[in-house]
């Protein structure tokens, strides 16, 4: 469902080139699905918890080394606002988060924080966990919240009494995230969460955020994640501005393509820090992916008619048991191949940026 949606949402121009079968499948999947969250209600909750003032950047200048990252930026974040923050590597996204969390001070202007504001910054480096401690003992705070969170984060049964040192990397990461959420912040800053959280943890986090009444700022290159958890997207621009993207993330990608690629700005910049996302596919990879999409489409069309044929034969031989069994087997194989190809098609479309 997550994939289908991500795929379907890639804007009307791309949609027309999408094979009919995907659109029908996706439409039927999302038909009865309510929107992931109730925006107005969450904002009301957030206002009750946070008051009207959350974090305001006022005429902020920020220079790191010899680079001006922000130049006279005024940006007000309201209660329950859910913001995606995008921009090329090295432009200053993480620095903006660190300004908001108070880890960095502006060179000019000020960062105003509301009185009840409690910010947590999920950066790539989280506090270390004691390897000898058991999962259950590593979790402090409200018992009820803790047990609910442990369960929805998949810490049940034996895992609860496992020592942290025996957890997998993904499980440790998930526990760190859980511990951060248990502190019940009302402003949450996520810095490229899709880089280092596994899919399972991301799913849990997405669901958790659906009814989380706080202000959320997410730095990410992952369109799907941004679409899923935020309501509005801003971009950090060369020249030190922060601008709202009226057309959201798809408008930004179109604009970047127009400007010659998402990585155009970086070319002039020093190498990004080790914590940056890997760069996108090369032009050759995109071409390959487009070709693959065409090939897969053709194969899928053939499989679709093969599947129809098999269905017809099955109806005709409804009383011949052995024949029917054989046809069923064939159909299952065709079905499996279709599914695998559809997966491949999605991956190719991802690479091709469609
Ligand atoms: N402590 C620092 N001293 C000097 N330059 C820094 C420091 N921290 C980050 N930078 C530089 O500031 C720029 C913005 O970094 P960052 O905010 O991490 O960008 P982003 O998160 O958008 O990739 C980068 O060019 C980086 O090299
Ligand atoms: Mg960064």
Helix/strand layout:
Elements: H1 2-8, H2 11-15, H3 20-30, H4 39-50, E1 55-64, E2 67-77, E3 82-86, H5 93-101, E4 108-113, E5 119-122, H6 143-152, H7 169-182, E6 187-191, H8 193-196, H9 199-210, E7 215-219, H10 223-229, E8 232-237, E9 241-244, H11 248-259, H12 283-316, H13 321-352
Parallel strand pairs: 3-7, 3-8, 5-6, 6-7
Antiparallel strand pairs: 1-2, 1-4, 8-9
Helix pairs in contact: 12-13
Bound molecules: adenosine-5'-diphosphate (ADP) and magnesium ion.
Domains (count) = 2
How much of the sequence lies in strands comes to 15-25%
> Strands across the major sheet, in which order?
5-6-7-3-8-9
Under CATH, the topology of the largest domain can be stated as Rossmann fold
Helix content: 40-55%
Sheet having the most strands: 6 strands, mixed
Describe the structure.
It is a single chain. This protein is of the alpha/beta class and 354 residues long. It has two domains: 39-268, P-loop containing nucleotide triphosphate hydrolases (Rossmann fold), CATH 3.40.50.300; 281-354. The protein contains 13 helices and nine strands. It has helices at 2-8, 11-15, 20-30, 39-50, 93-101, 143-152, 169-182, 193-196, 199-210, 223-229, 248-259, 283-316, 321-352; strands spanning 55-64, 67-77, 82-86, 108-113, 119-122, 187-191, 215-219, 232-237, 241-244. The strands form two sheets. The chain has a six-stranded mixed β-sheet with strand order 5-6-7-3-8-9, with helices on both faces. A hairpin with a 2-residue loop joins strand 1 (55-64) and strand 2 (67-77). The radius of gyration is 24 Å and the shape is globular. The two termini are 18 Å apart. Mean pLDDT is 81; it is low at 11-15 and 261-277. GO terms for molecular function: ATP binding; ATP hydrolysis activity. It holds the Pfam family ABC_tran. Keywords: ATP-binding, Coiled coil, Nucleotide-binding.
């Amino acid at each position: 469902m997550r994939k289908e949606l991500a795929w379907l949402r890639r804007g009307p121009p791309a949609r027309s080139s999408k094979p009919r079968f995907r659109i029908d499948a996706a439409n039927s999947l999302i038909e009865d699905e309510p929107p992931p969250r109730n925006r107005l209600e969450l904002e009301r909750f957030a206002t009750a918890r946070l008051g009207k003032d959350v974090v305001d950047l006022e005429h902020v200048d920020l220079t790191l080394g010899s680079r001006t990252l922000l130049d006279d930026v005024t940006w007000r974040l309201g209660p329950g606002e859910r913001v995606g923050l995008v921009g090329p590597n090295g432009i200053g996204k993480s620095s903006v988060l660190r300004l908001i969390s108070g880890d960095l001070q502006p060179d000019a202007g000020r960062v105003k924080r509301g009185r009840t504001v409690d910010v947590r910054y999920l950066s790539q480096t989280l506090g270390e966990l004691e390897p000898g401690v058991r999962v259950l003992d590593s979790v402090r705070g409200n018992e009820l919240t803790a047990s609910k969170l442990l369960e929805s984060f998949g810490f049940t049964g034996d895992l609860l009494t496992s020592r942290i040192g025996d957890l997998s990397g993904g499980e440790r990461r998930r526990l760190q995230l859980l511990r951060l959420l248990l502190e019940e912040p009302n402003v949450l800053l996520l810095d490229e969460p899709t880089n280092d959280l596994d899919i399972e943890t991301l799913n849990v986090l997405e669901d958790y955020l659906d009814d989380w009444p706080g202000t959320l700022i997410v730095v990410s290159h992952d369109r799907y994640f941004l679409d899923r958890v935020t309501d509005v997207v801003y971009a950090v621009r060369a020249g030190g501005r922060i601008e709202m993207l009226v057309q959201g993330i798809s408008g930004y990608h179109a604009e970047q393509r127009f400007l010659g690629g998402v990585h155009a700005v970086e070319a002039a910049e020093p190498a990004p820090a080790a914590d940056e996302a890997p760069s996108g596919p090369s032009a050759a990879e995109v071409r390959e992916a487009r070709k693959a999409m065409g090939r897969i489409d053709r194969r899928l069309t053939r499989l679709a008619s093969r599947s129809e044929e098999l269905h017809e034969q099955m109806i005709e031989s409804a009383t011949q048991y052995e024949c029917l069994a054989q046809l069923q087997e064939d159909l299952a194989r065709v079905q499996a191949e279709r599914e695998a190809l559809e997966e491949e098609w999605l991956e190719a479309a991802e690479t091709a940026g469609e």
